């Protein structure tokens, strides 16, 4: 199974929001999760100084590029506040549509599960 890393250093519980179905769109600045479309993935919360933790699961059902000019229309589904570190920059962001979310009891992974520059892992 694959797990996607969802950074929560900004104080918003993005990973938990995906697992609860409150955040149906996960974003990336590059197409880093496109190979996982059609798969069920673990949602892994990452925070500076903490071990990565599985908080739930979801299916990635579609990936598409959203131009910066249209990003504001989807802000409520991404939970990304205007001006935050995760806000759209440049031409736009990749959207990954999440479905069939499920929360689980938190399960910590080894600290070395995160590899620099990776958006997901296999376990």
Overview of the molecule:
The chain starts with a strand and ends with a strand. It has a six-stranded mixed sheet with strand order 2-5-4-3-1-6. The protein has two helices and six strands. It is mainly β. The protein has helices spanning 14-20, 75-78; strands spanning 2-7, 25-28, 40-46, 53-67, 92-108, 120-122.
Primary descriptors:
123 residues, mainly beta, Archaeosine Trna-guanine Transglycosylase, Chain: A, domain 4, six-stranded mixed sheet, 2 helices, 9% helix, 42% strand, globular
Q: What are the low-pLDDT stretches, counting only 5+ consecutive residues below 50?
A: none
Tell me, briefly, the overall form. Answer: globular
Q: Tell me the CATH topology.
A: Archaeosine Trna-guanine Transglycosylase, Chain: A, domain 4
Q: Helix content range of the residues, please?
A: under 10%
Number of E-state strands: 6
Strand arrangement, major sheet:
2-5-4-3-1-6
Termini separation comes to 6 Å
What structural category do the secondary elements indicate? mainly beta
Proportion of beta-strand residues: 35-45%
Mean pLDDT: 94
Q: Helix and strand string, N-terminal first? A: EHEEEHEE
Q: In this structure, how is the largest beta sheet organized?
A: 6 strands, mixed
Q: Report the CATH superfamily.
A: Hypothetical protein
Give the radius of gyration.
13 Å
The top-level CATH class is Mainly Beta
């Amino acid at each position: 199974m694959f797990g996607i890393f969802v950074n929560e250093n900004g104080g918003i519980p993005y990973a938990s929001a995906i697992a609860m179905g409150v955040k149906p769109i996960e974003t990336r600045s590059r197409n880093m999760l496109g190979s996982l479309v059609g798969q069920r993935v673990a949602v892994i919360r990452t925070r500076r100084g903490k071990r990565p933790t599985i908080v739930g699961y979801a299916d990635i059902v579609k990936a598409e590029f959203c131009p910066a000019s249209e990003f504001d229309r989807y802000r409520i589904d991404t939970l990304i506040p205007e001006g935050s570190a995760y806000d759209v920059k440049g031409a736009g962001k990749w959207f990954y549509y999440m479905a069939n979310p499920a929360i689980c009891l938190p399960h910590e992974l080894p600290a070395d599960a995160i590899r620099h520059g990776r958006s997901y892992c296999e376990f």
